[in-house]
User: Fold these one by one.
Assistant:
Number 1:
Amino acid sequence: MCGIVAYIGSKNAPNVLIDGLTKLEYRGYDSAGIAVINKDKIDVYRSVGKLINLKNMLDEKKPVSNIGIGHTRWATHGKPSYENAHPHSSFGISLVHNGIIENYLDIKRNLADKGYKFESETDTEVIAHLIHSNYKDDIFEAVKVSVKQIKGSFALAVISVNEPDKIILARHDSPLVIGISDGENFAASDIPALISYTNKFIFLEENDIAILTKNSVTCYDFEGKKTDREVKIVDINPVMAEKAGYRHFMQKEIFEQPRAIIDTIRGKYSLENGELLLDELKSIDIKKYRRVNIVACGTSWHAGLVGKFYIEKFAKIPVEVDIASEYRYRDTIIDEETLFIAISQSGETADTIAAMRLAKSRGAGILSICNVIGSTIPRESDATFFTHAGPEIGVASTKAFTTQVIALLMLALYFAQEKQTLNHVEIRNILTEIVKLPEKMEEALKLDSHIEEMAKDFKSFPSFLYLGRNVNYPIALEGALKLKEISYIHAEGYPAGEMKHGPIALIDKNMPVFIIATDSKVYDKVLANIQEVKARDGIVIATVTEGNKDVEKFTEYCIKLPAAVEELSVFLNSIVIQLLAYHISAELGLDVDQPRNLAKSVTVE
Ligand code: M6R
């Protein structure tokens, strides 16, 4: 949901801003802009559409400045247009904003009464005029007064032509990180925007305002009291945020999965002792909890559905899995005996944050699974299991998903160990299978060209059905979501056993049905489902375990995966559904990494 970036130092600010925005484009890509201080005025450059349009404009105009702010937009208030693109300005003050201002209409009316004119439909322009209306001779003071008058969520970067040696930052419910270097400082919505310049970061906290000059960073709370914010060293290799020879980020991220799984479980177990070593979870006494609520959105919700199987099977704790936007508005039963698990790649999803805060207010223990260090969800959790997927740039989640699933499996085994529902031999047996998993995933990835060929046959179908059972049912949901979001092809995921309760009516010769039929305790049932589809002329695409001879009798589209225990088959099946969606989208010539209407991180409700 919008990316912001700011720079002050001795480099040419427009170059740094464009570079940062390129890394943030996954957050929104319907328009972009920068503002730089140029002697006694602020020059604003904005353009509609992808960042490349702004880049081309700047290549032509060649602005020069050592201080500036930039923005890439995902529209909330007002359609994508030149007028609505950020930065927004008011008489020598310019700002960029990520978030939503809820009381902007009231403020707008007041400001209009004072004579301010509005050129856009955005809530952001209102903040620019509000700051100007509060400005006497100190931009920090004007921002400080203004943030108390606005309601909603915001990360702001503000510059004033009268004070060309500073940038003012403010955060409330939207992420903002400061990058620190010698004689120059940066700010951005997310670390990848800055990682090629520095590895030293300050993660601004709720209700922080900061003054950034080229040689200093000073943080305050909204009352103006100085706050100490720790400088953290973050070790992300800048190359992880590059395509590294792949055609798309999504393709690269699919192929990174075996490595991401290894990084996520590294140091967290002893195979020899059949033991989980999750020191980061020491503050969570699992024996205290009678139930687990897993809450997330989108793909992270699908990971949560797999997690339910693991936790109930191994740790024998009842688990409910909820979509965050539903959980927060129903009369959910939450108390001190509830362990709430928030799953979020970004750690900034607004609905998941709100659900987490609700659970916290009712006394639940808060555990999170997150991929972004310093983001809101881990910061507000009692304990966090960090996935080590590395930056995920493609909007469609791939490696974030499988690392969340492995984190949930490790968590389930840890709970089982603490509750003694599994003994060390049983845990060792499962760990032995987990250790072999990355190699099996590498094998599955070798199916890439086979799946690419298949994609050519399927790119023109208007609708797909995805079926799976048991632990692979959430993978069917994920398969349908992947196809929808990057190929714009309608798809539905269903538990295979539910097919005859409705969706079977859709099946005819024009309906491809992707069926997960790898070895499992429900394999025979799935085989029966395949026959039911064939009996109605549906086209079956199926994943099976190597050596399977049954399914190829029913379809030429049979994808053979390495043998794995049922709990781990989800990882191999995930690779297939991801590759199929990827190749169909690429075959259709669509924008795989930045599909229409979507943004990587949904920081608004
Ligand atoms: O950052 P989060 O994991 O909280 O994001 C949740 C969803 O927005 C996200 O998984 C979304 O569904 C993905 N684009 C799916 O590929």
Number 2:
Amino acid sequence: MIRESAPAKIILFGEHAVVHGQPAIALPFPALRAHVSISESATELEFRSVDGSLLAAPHLPKKSDPLLLQMLLTVLRRLRIVAPEISVLLYSEIPQACGFGSGAAIATALTRALARHAGRPISAAEVNDIVFETESIFHGTPSGIDNTVIVHERALCFTRGTDPLPVQIDQSFQLLVADSGDRCATHIPVSAVRERLQLHPEGTAVILEDIGAIVNKALRVLASGQPLALGTLMYKNHALLGKLGVSSPLLDRLVSAAGSAGAAGAKLSGAGRGGVVIALVKESGSADVALALQDAGAVQIWNTTIQATN
Ligand code: MEV
């Protein structure tokens, strides 16, 4: 049996602005992973969840989840695999539509597993290219940041149309990742920002540029060994995302609850209108902030350490 997996991701700074050419910083979130395994089967190709339910099968299109069927067909076409007699099993720990890059993680694990099964060596760049194509099915106009950080599984600074740059992190720091429980498909806030840009080009462009400036400051702070100084930048980034119209009353409540409980910074992460909030905490104060997030409505909270790079 062939097994592959890929991590979730979080965006530290710069979501949405990155779609419009600004830089953004993304981190892998390996606490949550999508796992794919492949075994031989005597029947036609089927893509199932571990509980046995059918996710997608090219010979049963009506019984398939349309997006997962598209993903499967895209990966098979790109790998030039024709009518394989295999059973593909998916077990994903990553909640969907909440900013973790679930679709990109599934597509990454699927591409690697199918390539290995076909005995076809595949570079990270090619996996990234294939997963980007599948992302376009889900999101219409992705920037490419989600697939890139998930495929490379390292902290990076991403600007559309250029090679991703490794991010230097001089001192490790702690983040709480709080799930608001609200779900919103990525393409909805992404389209809303695009519409805003069309309706109010100048005002929106200023917001996007201000977010880009925050990203550049954050890169310097990350390299400075004073990670708690990221906090102010996180609050500013969240406020700008609110101005873009991609926050929500619940996300704002979570951010301010984290702040009142002593978080150095907090912001929504990912496309917004639901999904997760990240809060920068000191080891000593993390329990208070976690409790405050829970009281404010978070349905699940992960405590993660972002390690310094060498
Ligand atoms: C989604 O994780 C990040 C967005 O900036 C969309 C994208 O970059 O494709 C909202």
Number 3:
Amino acid sequence: MADFAPVSTAEREAPAEPPPVQAAMDAPMTADMVPAEDFAEPAPAVIAEAPIVAPARDREAAIAAMDWPALDAAVAGCTACGLCHTRTNTVFGVGDRQAEWMLIGEAPGENEDLQGEPFVGQAGKLLDNMLVSLGLRRGRNVFIANVLKCRPPGNRNPEPAEVEQCEPFLKQQIALVRPRVIVVLGRFAAQSLLRTTTPIGKLRGTVHSYEGIPVVVTYHPAYLLRTLTDKARAWEDLCLAREVHDRAGAQA
Ligand code: URA
């Protein structure tokens, strides 16, 4: 679109018609004259926005039109943020692509980065047990993904710009799976997906919605490994998720 077309550095820095330098220097300065440096400045708002907004929208639209193979390839080759320089593997997600359940974590850790699969470390073992308690198994009727597809170095928290670049991938995964229920694991994933700063304690216990799909929030398995006393609460969350799943099935 014309109004979003990027403007080259040269175009931005050079006025279209250079002022007649000699005449300007010779003429006396008057109050209505614009200082010379203002000629060098572009109209700021439109030009500053153009290169950022339009490509971001185009990228989101392109991702939203992808099928599984295209999405897989786009994630594998993604260089949209700095994490591409430190990752070993991208971690696309794993499981049944027509699953009724979708589980969403935060980001790959060290083991996941090495193996290219989500939740393969200690937290993953607990997650597998959580799945069993729901009558599920990794790869059968459940798809597991993360908000970020690349590991933040040193397991630091993901940065907002990284989440922003990665979100279209997750959004499209959810659109392709179209699960009956999404279970979000941990504060970070919950707050990112639901675009809120509400603490996890307040997000638990109610059914939220993402793109029309019911969302239940529970604790991250890594947190549960450290805080055994909250396992009972996590069990309550899974019971709620099962209820939501069954209800959605009855309506289908
Ligand atoms: N923690 C997550 O949130 N995701 C993983 O894949 C592994 C650990």
Number 4:
Amino acid sequence: MSTSEPLVLGIESSCDETGVGIVRGHTLLADALASSVDEHARFGGVVPEVASRAHLQALVPTLHRALDEAGVTLADIDAIAVTAGPGLAGALLVGVAGAKGLALATEKPIYGVNHLAAHVAVDTLEHGPLPAPAIALLVSGGHSSLLRVDDLTRGVTPLGATIDDAAGEAFDKVARLLGMPFPGGPPIDRAARDGDPLAITFPRGLTGPKDLVEHRFDFSFSGLKTAVARWVEARERAGEPVPVNDVAASFQHAVCDVLVRKAIDACRTQGIDTLVIGGGVAANSRLKAMAAERAAEYGITVRVPRPKLCTDNGAMVAALGSHLVAAGITPSKLDFAADSAMPLTLVGV
Ligand code: KG4
Ligand code: ZN
């Protein structure tokens, strides 16, 4: 690690995690996190007002924890990055206002960045610089997209996205109907380990011959979620026990199969041999294994950050900020607004 590389602080508050990360170049120094997930669990989804209030309470203590962990002070920080969008408006506002306050007080440059691009950038903390071009599969609670990444600091090229539910949303909804807690990804991942992924054949959305013309790189998970619901209902109506582990494994297999198939197809049609997977669903153990196994057949290298870096965190924001600083990108103006619908093509504001 070179001390001449800029020290960047990143703040994340787009959903239910308050994250503060500190990086120097590609080196992660601190990744402090406070989650309000337990406060949302009984509602089966994130409650925006509850999330905003939790961010407000957690931001300063999380910042102090990150500074302690990294062994630095605010005066040492060279630049501040913060998630400007997309996400919950009120939740974003807390991080953006906090980051602006810090930038003003310390007279450091501030970068308002895109949460989704940050999910891609975080992988560099674990695996070093991302080869260009690369294909990125972004799978979170709110988004599922395939992107071509030529230069992360300049923008990404969307190739396709979900036309209905996001992959994480499908995990959350299926978990709910199986009686599992929110968020549903981790309990389904665990249950699936004891189930048979081939026990039930669930539909693979947008993979038919006709879909490959119009929706080659798009996803659809809403039909899959409905198919799982119907299957479980039929069992219950017949008075038969629901084999939860098999349902979880078969559902997970269907999601991963489609994600991996389309991601590899994107790599092959674009002649690209690096696939990076980011976002909360990238923490899924089966997705990572399946992608690595199938990609190897085509000489494609798969990069997936460790689970803690896949789900929302401050380190990912610091990582993207660090890229922007290194590329000499002009910082954001202090009056930038949080943008709950920030487009994927915009890396920063
Ligand atoms: O990226 P993220 O932390 O927040 C958003 O930006 O949305 O993603 C959260 C999503 C949730 O839907 C959660 O169920 C899913 O990621 N997730 C998983 C796993 N861990 C988290 N999905 C599948 N398998 C997992 N192990
Ligand atoms: Zn996210």
